[in-house]
């Protein structure tokens, strides 16, 4: 387009030169005047366009090379324009409301292939994230952050309140039942061992027959007692255990001596070298379990994730109430982000432009505007020729 504009200007100059010595009283006067005015218009617009981006012919004429000189001001103006007209809460809310993101995403997610794709991508990202966490990192976090924090925080009141709540709610009864069942199974599987344990505590001078009978009687009493405790939810032993646990919970919250002993035990446990090894082992086991579940596409993790995504997609696609809530949540989040960080986001524009070299910025903007700049020169040449022709015509008529 630069060549076209330049060719048009050269053509006007050639016509002007060829008609300059011809008879101007007739038609050649009109042609010569039009060519002369076309050159003036073309040159004027060439100067105007060029002055925006560089010095014409390299001559530092005042008020030329505007963009290289005003690059930083232009960057700030673009930043302000973008922030004030695009990164506003009203604009963002309006665009999100018009977009209907929830229903579109729900329809997309309802496709089983898309749900599988989401799970696959999430699995890939999770595996990559897990792979970047090294055992030394886990050890460092455990010993450098978690353990010191636990050492600083008193644990006794928290344990006391937790134990009190567990006992008051009866949440421990399952654990008590499990302990009773395990004890009963051990007794039923080891009667001779129980009898021998009782016999070891008997006096050496007692007859062996008596010791055997005492051992068997004690064994049967223990079994019967466990059966009674298991079958009676309000057994005295259960109540005694509840009272004991509640007293322990109270002492943990209010008894300074119990608290000191508990904190001392906590410090001994946390400062033991095996704590870091236990944290690493726990992490390795968790990572191995997650990796195994992610590798098996028929695992519970995969099937539940795909089912959950399919249900979510169906709800988003068909339930207006869910769509409204999700769209409102997205709009709120986007509006908050724009309100908090919109100005900072818009600074990307100014920082980027300000980091450019002046000539580089000028070239980028000139190339972006492109052909329209050269049409200004072309139009200037044509309009100049028409204006010159009109003025010559008026002059001719008056003459």
From TrEMBL:
It holds the Pfam family DUF445. It comes from Propioniciclava tarda. InterPro entries: DUF445. It comes from the Bacteria. The lineage of its organism: Bacteria, Bacillati, Actinomycetota, Actinomycetes, Propionibacteriales. GO terms for cellular component: plasma membrane. This is DUF445 domain-containing protein.
């Amino acid at each position: 387009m630069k060549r076209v504009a330049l060719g048009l200007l050269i053509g006007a100059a050639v016509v002007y030169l060829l008609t300059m010595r011809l008879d101007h009283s007739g038609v050649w006067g009109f042609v010569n005047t039009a060519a002369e005015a076309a050159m003036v218009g073309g040159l004027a617009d060439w100067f105007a366009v060029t002055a925006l981006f560089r010095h014409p012919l390299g001559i530092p004429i005042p008020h030329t090379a505007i963009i290289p000189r005003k690059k930083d001001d232009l960057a700030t103006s673009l930043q302000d324009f973008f922030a004030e007209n695009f990164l506003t809460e009203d604009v963002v809310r309006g665009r999100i409301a018009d977009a209907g993101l929830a229903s579109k995403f729900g329809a997309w997610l309802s496709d089983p292939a898309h749900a599988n794709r989401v799970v696959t991508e999430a699995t890939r990202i999770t595996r990559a994230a897990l792979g970047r966490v090294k055992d030394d990192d886990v050890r460092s976090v455990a010993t450098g952050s978690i353990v010191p924090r636990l050492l600083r925080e008193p644990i006794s009141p928290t344990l006391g309140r937790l134990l009190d709540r567990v006992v008051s709610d009866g949440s421990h009864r399952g654990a008590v039942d499990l302990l009773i069942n395990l004890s009963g199974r051990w007794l039923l599987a080891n009667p001779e061992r129980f009898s021998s344990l009782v016999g070891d505590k008997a006096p050496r001078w007692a007859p062996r027959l008596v010791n055997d009978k005492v051992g068997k009687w004690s064994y049967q009493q223990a079994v019967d007692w466990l059966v009674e405790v298991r079958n009676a939810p309000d057994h005295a032993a259960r109540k005694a255990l509840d009272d004991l646990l509640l007293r322990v919970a109270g002492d943990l919250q209010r008894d300074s001596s119990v608290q000191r002993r508990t904190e001392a035990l906590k410090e001994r446990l946390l400062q033991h070298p095996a704590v870091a090894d236990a944290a690493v082992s726990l992490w390795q086991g968790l990572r191995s379990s997650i990796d195994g579940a992610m590798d098996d596409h028929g695992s519970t993790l995969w099937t539940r994730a795909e089912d959950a995504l399919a249900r979510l997609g169906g709800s988003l696609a068909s339930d207006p109430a869910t769509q409204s809530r999700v769209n409102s949540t997205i709009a709120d989040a986007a509006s908050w982000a724009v309100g908090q960080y919109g100005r900072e986001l818009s600074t990307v524009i100014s920082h980027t432009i300000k980091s450019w070299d002046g000539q580089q910025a000028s070239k980028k903007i000139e190339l972006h505007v492109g052909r329209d700049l050269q049409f200004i020169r072309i139009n200037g040449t044509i309009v100049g020729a028409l204006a010159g022709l009109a003025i010559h015509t008026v002059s001719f008529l008056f003459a």
